[in-house]
Amino acid sequence: MGRWLRLVSKTTLGQHSFRRSRMDWGANRKRSVSGRLLPAASSSHASLVQACSTHNSSSYLIPTTSATVRCTGDIADGLMEALMSFGASSVSIEDGAPTDNAVQENFEGPVAWSNERRKLWNQCELIALFPPGHDVEECLALAFNSVGLKEKLTYRLSEVQHQNWEQQVKDLFQPLKISESLWIIPQWSSPPDSSATNIILDPGLAFGTGDHPTTQLCLRWLNNVMKGGEEILDYGTGSGILAIAALKAVGVDIDPMAISSATHNASLNGYGPDSLRLLNAPSSGNESIPVIDAKYDIVVANLLLNPLLLLSECLLSYTKPGGQLGLSGILKSQVDQVREAYGLHLDNMSVGIQDGWACLSGTKSFP
């Protein structure tokens, strides 16, 4: 029985895609997260990460046939499921007519990154990959019929070049220099500077690898505000990269697979529960986290605009008076909305900008 993986990729102000894949390539593979965001990842990037994390053979070749189907947004999810059921190895859904405004909207609002947002797309393109020897046209016919289509949709087939996914991932993820004293290192690489702080990550777990501007902004901010000995909360920990950089921290995420990812990456860096406490949080912004009753010297939250707005009271409550709060995952154009939500409770606010993304930070006011 194949396991189901759901990858959601967020490009830097680029086209959005949603990919779902079914893997049948061994019982010891790692799983991706359901519904997590992959910062700065394209569809091919997400696919490469997925392949590296699910298969260990250097000879593995990607599926050889691609079918691109154009459909309306209201049937896209159902058709995606049908294609998977009838033999597709993976299916991505892309906006068939993206505009700059549509891209911007997906970073904002209460339904951002939801199925309801996809239904707003008038036209979608489904790109399905099939393994060698599969009867693609039969699969398409069965899928069309299963979702009740009276007329067959138009589609195009193409051959996909054989590629070594694992090697491509290794070529893609190279040691990343964040600052003079901080590097992000994929687990198969040797640190270029052994005297620096080197964070070892498994990119195959697909929860963030340090290459997105918001992650780098947060890392530099942490490097500036940490003096030593602080208690730190990383809310939305993902791969654990920020919590690991803090050395002694609490990492929180709404997805249990993110917690597994962060736990694994922490172990790669030699940190156990005494140094890095990882907790699964409720998914609602109106709920607090029952197991956290402390206040922290430093709180960092690299999320998106809407979660930051919903969680303002929560994140402020976890920050000690006089403590530091860093907020990222937002565009430069969204800074004023975050400033308005937090400004009454933060002093000395400042904004870091990189490639159109922002990190707003400040000191928690005393009562």
UniProtKB/TrEMBL annotation:
SUPFAM superfamilies (alphabetical): S-adenosyl-L-methionine-dependent methyltransferases
Q: Which Pfam families match?
A: PrmA (PF06325)
Q: Where is coiled-coil annotated?
A: none
User: CDD domains from the entry?
Assistant: AdoMet_MTases
Q: Which GO terms describe its biological process?
A: methylation
- Gene3D superfamilies recorded: Vaccinia Virus protein VP39 (3.40.50.150)
Query: Is Cytoplasm among this UniProt entry's keywords?
Result: yes
Q: Which residues form the signal peptide?
A: none
Q: Which InterPro entries does the record associate with it?
A: Ribosomal_L11_MeTrfase_PrmA, Ribosomal_PrmA_MeTrfase, SAM-dependent_MTases_sf
Which top-level group of life is the source organism from?
Answer: Eukaryota
What is a single molecular function from GO for this protein? protein-lysine N-methyltransferase activity
Which UniProt keywords are listed? Cytoplasm, Methyltransferase, S-adenosyl-L-methionine, Transferase
Can you supply one Gene Ontology CC term for this chain's record?
mitochondrion
Query: Which family would the database say this protein is a member of?
Result: Belongs to the methyltransferase superfamily. ETFBKMT family.
Name the HAMAP family for this protein: Methyltr_PrmA
Against PANTHER family, the record matches this protein to:
ELECTRON TRANSFER FLAVOPROTEIN BETA SUBUNIT LYSINE METHYLTRANSFERASE (PTHR43648:SF1)
| The protein, known as | ETFB lysine methyltransferase
Which species is listed as the source? Adiantum capillus-veneris
